[in-house]
Write a structure and sequence with these properties.
With 349 residues, the protein is an alpha/beta fold. 38% of the residues lie in helices and 18% in strands. The protein is built from 13 helices and 13 strands. The protein has helices at 14-23, 38-52, 87-95, 114-119, 149-161, 168-181, 192-203, 208-216, 221-234, 250-255, 266-269, 301-306, 325-338; strands at 10-12, 27-32, 57-62, 80-81, 98-102, 123-128, 139-142, 235-238, 243-248, 278-284, 289-295, 311-312, 316-321. The strands form 2 sheets. The protein has a 7-stranded mixed sheet with strand order 1-7-6-5-2-3-4, with helices on both faces. The protein has a 6-stranded mixed sheet with strand order 8-9-10-11-13-12. Strand 2 (27-32), helix 2 and strand 3 form a beta-alpha-beta unit. Helix 2 runs parallel beside helix 5 and helix 2 packs antiparallel against helix 6 (168-181). The radius of gyration is 20 Å and the shape is globular. It starts with 9 loop residues before the first strand and ends in an 11-residue tail after the last helix. The structure holds manganese (II) ion.
């Protein structure tokens, strides 16, 4: 059995960064991970609004398209999406003073833009809460015990300008990422600190029921019917392994007209079954096979995904595998069978 790693927060040259930002307006690029989620978009847009309100010129870059269900976020329309062409994104990354990298630590998380991070002459800033990271940044704010990158951006804004409340726009963005990454304050990292941050954001203008409506009541009918199909036709439950998985062929996504990000959250569903400690979602993409995993308790989702070149958090991690789809699924299930004894435990608080 592996114990959870305890890694102290890492802060490198953040005061120097803030001093430089206060000194004069800067050209800033903010990049987040591919297939961006609520925390990736919330932290990037929240930081962009915060910096723009203070005279800087920020541009937000997404390595791949983001889900339409996040289009409501202020500033979403101005995001530079580096797909199908990454020329504009690379130009921004090369011509800025500071390149902020949010909600990822490894440069293989930004699709075609990894080399452009290393090559950019800009000062680089890493703000993240994942377990692994590459050493490309001069300025670092990392804390693997933080619930979300939005929580870290909140801390950054307080270091920058503690006396001024956040604007409702910034507060909404940060609240969105905190809500999505904590699954509504239900993950082990949920701390008194993050609950206080959420309360503070509400005091500054966030309306929780409005954000919830945007996040959870804005899907297509197709997506709900697709969910039914996945649970009825595609769910495999292996009580002997304390594991369950859903496999989604590309043809099924096309049949139900499923858009980017609409399978998000499906990975959590099988953990609702009593006795299941590990849940997997295996999705066929046009070029790759995407693995997403969640665990309860001591089994490390991060270690499981490492063997396929992926990673993430202790209890939530992912990887990208080469196809063909059926062969990738078989490799994943074989790996699961090897974890039979590691998965055999009762979740206790
Ligand atoms: Mn995150």
């Amino acid at each position: 059995m592996t114990s959870k790693p305890i890694e102290p927060p890492m802060e490198v040259a953040i005061n120097e960064l803030i001093a430089a930002l206060k000194d004069a307006p800067k050209r800033i690029s903010i990049i987040t991970h591919m297939k961006p989620d609520g925390d990736a978009l919330g932290s990037s847009l929240g930081l962009a609004h915060f910096l723009a309100e203070r005279g800087h010129k920020p541009t937000v870059i997404a390595p791949t398209a983001f889900p339409e269900s996040f289009r409501w976020m202020k500033g979403a329309d101005a995001i530079v999406v580096a797909e199908p062409s990454d020329a504009e994104a690379k130009a921004h990354m090369n011509e800025c003073d500071y390149l902020f990298c949010l909600d990822f630590g490894k440069t293989n998380r930004v699709n075609t833009l990894g080399d452009a991070i290393w090559a950019s002459p800009a000062q680089k800033v890493l703000v993240d809460h994942h377990l692994d990271f590459d050493t490309f940044a001069q300025h670092i704010l990392r804390d693997v015990s933080a619930t979300s990158t939005c929580e870290l951006i909140y801390r950054f804004t307080r270091l920058y300008d503690e006396a001024t409340p956040l604007s409702p726009t910034v507060a909404e963005c940060l609240y969105t990422g905190i809500m999505t990454d904590t699954k509504g304050f239900r993950i082990p990292n949920t701390s008194p600190a993050v609950l206080r941050i959420a309360a503070q954001l509400v005091e500054w203008g966030v309306r929780p029921h409005v954000i919830d409506h945007h996040l959870n009541s804005s899907y297509s009918e197709n997506r709900l019917r697709f969910l039914g199909y996945c649970l009825y036709e595609r769910l495999v439950v292996r009580h002997d392994l304390h594991a369950a998985w859903i496999t989604i062929p590309l043809a099924a996504k096309q049949q139900y007209n499923i858009q980017e990000g609409e399978t998000e959250g499906l990975v959590n569903q099988a953990l609702e079954i009593k006795g299941i400690n590990f849940s997997l979602l295996i999705t066929e993409d046009t070029d790759k096979v995407r693995l997403s995993t969640r665990s309860f308790g001591q089994f490390s989702a991060n270690n499981f995904c490492h063997q396929f070149g992926g990673g993430g958090h202790y209890n939530a991690a992912g990887a990208r595998l080469d196809g063909p789809f059926e062969a990738a699924v078989a490799r994943i299930v074989e790996a699961l069978e090897r974890e039979k004894s590691a998965l055999d435990y009762e979740f206790v608080s």
